[in-house]
Write a structure and sequence with these properties.
The protein is α/β, with parallel strands linked by helices. The chain has helices spanning 6-18, 26-36, 40-51, 58-73, 96-110, 125-131, 149-164, 181-189, 210-224, and strands spanning 54-56, 83-87, 117-119, 137-145, 171-180, 193-200, 230-231, 234-235, 248-250.
């Protein structure tokens, strides 16, 4: 990275003061700001969005996990003899919800819970209940909720599994570290008990005057036109999956596809590789 003038240096320095984590992706940020942003209004949008990212360093991530654990053991109606903690994961593939669940394994022990059940995929909660009907409170855990659709699909499937066995003496609650306000609202409107340690707004739609929103969204879509529209059979999630416009990432984390893809999509429109600011395993794209 070589600055062309003092203004570029000053801009980068000011952003890194606001968001220290940017130092680790300075080259990619420079490319986005000064090459991919072909005019001032595109650059101004990206600068504003970057400055508002909810970034979790490892110590804050651990703190949120501790807060989540404390909330679980102090929640009325829950105790270790009647609760199963269930990862939102659908299968055996690596998933951040299983990381959250694994952290709870020792933390809940430290907090005095000894007899709870830990379940590493959501569709196994019925099997756990059948083996131990007293563990009737299902606590679905995850790191991040974007559009809310995955949560609703998981809850619907669990309810269907229990109904097929004529079991109705159970409860489902969802507890996560970070969620979009839109996703939380959708889930709550469906009658699901959910809470999140951090709630984030849409990066554009919830942060600009109504009169400016469409223009800002158009600018982002213009930037997205630089990117490959499909990776294998998966489309570029324009404005983030479910149009959630998320601004969230964490140390050593798999960037959610709810985040604006301009920050993590690794291919240009012509198929050439791109170095993005953030990273997501493209098998999950």
């Amino acid at each position: 990275m070589k600055f062309r003038d003092a203004e570029e240096f000053k801009l980068m320095l000011n952003l890194q003061k606001k968001q220290p984590w940017l130092e680790q992706c300075a080259d990619a940020m420079y490319q986005l700001l000064f090459t991919e942003c072909s005019r001032d209004e595109l650059q101004e949008l990206i600068i504003d969005l970057i400055s508002r990212f909810e970034y979790l360093p490892q110590n804050k991530y651990t703190m949120l996990l501790d807060d989540l654990a404390l909330g679980i053991v102090t929640e009325p109606g829950l105790n270790d003899t009647n609760t199963q903690l269930v990862a939102m994961a659908p299968d055996s593939n690596a998933d951040s919800s299983q990381e959250v669940l694994y952290y709870m394994k020792v933390k809940l022990q430290q907090l005095g819970w000894l007899n709870h059940k830990l379940v590493n995929r959501y569709d196994a909660s019925i099997r756990t209940y059948k083996k131990s009907p007293k563990h009737k409170n299902i606590l679905l855990l995850d790191e991040f909720v974007g559009s809310g659709n995955t949560v609703l699909n998981r809850v619907t499937r669990i309810k269907s599994q229990f109904a097929e066995k004529n079991i109705f003496d159970y409860s489902i609650r969802v507890r996560v570290l970070v969620a979009t306000r839109a996703g939380l609202s959708l889930i709550k409107q469906s009658g699901v008990d959910i809470s999140s340690e951090i709630i984030i707004d849409k990066g554009i739609s919830d942060n600009y005057p109504n009169s400016d929103v469409n223009n800002k969204l158009s600018l982002m879509i213009e930037l997205e036109s630089l990117l490959l529209s499909y990776f294998k059979d998966r489309p570029l999630p324009s404005l983030g999956y479910g149009k959630t416009e998320s601004l969230y990432c964490r140390d050593n984390g798999n960037t959610p596809n709810s985040v604006f893809p301009i920050f993590w999509w690794p291919f240009y429109e012509n198929g050439e590789k791109r170095i993005p600011m953030l990273h997501r395993a493209m098998g999950d794209a």
